[in-house]
Design brief:
The chain is built from 2 helices and 3 strands, in the order H-E-E-E-H. It has helices at about 20-25, 70-80; strands spanning about 35-40, 50-55, 65.
Length: about 80
Amino acid sequence: MLARVHDPRAVQFWDRGRLLSKTLGGPAHLPLGDQLNEIGFQMKNVIWDFVAIYPPGSERPSLTGAPVLSVNGNIHEELAKAPPQ
């Protein structure tokens, strides 16, 4: 999926031990962004195929959504708003 986002600020995590999912509190506690917040499927106890875009210095995402493919256009629009680093 990361190959679809051509931006050096983008990162992808493989959460084999589900530590990131547990740290975030599981799907029921996904962070809400200022826009979109569209989760197009039921995640059970593991967060997967999810995107959160955080503006520089912010603890709140500007956009969240899943699956990544269904919000790909929104991802590109949101990343275009931020200056490159």
